[in-house]
Amino acid sequence: MYNCKVYHESASNRGRIILLDITVNTLRDIAKELDMTYQQVADLNSRGIRKYQKFKYFPKIEIIKI
User: Fold this and answer.
1) Phi, psi dihedrals of residue 50, rounded to the nearest 5°
2) Is it the case that residue 1 has pLDDT exceeding 80?
């Protein structure tokens, strides 16, 4: 099982704005929910920061295996 959180850090010190918080069985379920390909979700799930994840307005996507 996986837990997926999509959130944005508020610039005005209001904390996190949570856009999505779900628990699903597979990464494919997350891909379907986010309307992304499985490969894109697998890329997000891998450790390390990609260049596009450093953009100012890129939402934080956190995938944790439960």
Assistant:
1) -90, 160
2) yes
**Closest-CA residue to 64 (of 10, 9, 16, 21):** 21
Give 29: exposed, middle or buried? Use CB within 10 Å, 0-12, 13-18, 19+.
middle
Token pair listed for 28: 């494919």
| Orientation angle between helical segments 38-45 and 27-34, nearest 10 degrees | 110
Q: Kindly state the tokens that stand for 39.
A: 């490969």
**3-32 confidence digits (pLDDT tens):** 999 998 777 667 888 999 999 999 999 999
Nearest to 30 by CA among 20, 41, 39, 40: 41
- pTM exceeds 0.85 for this model: no
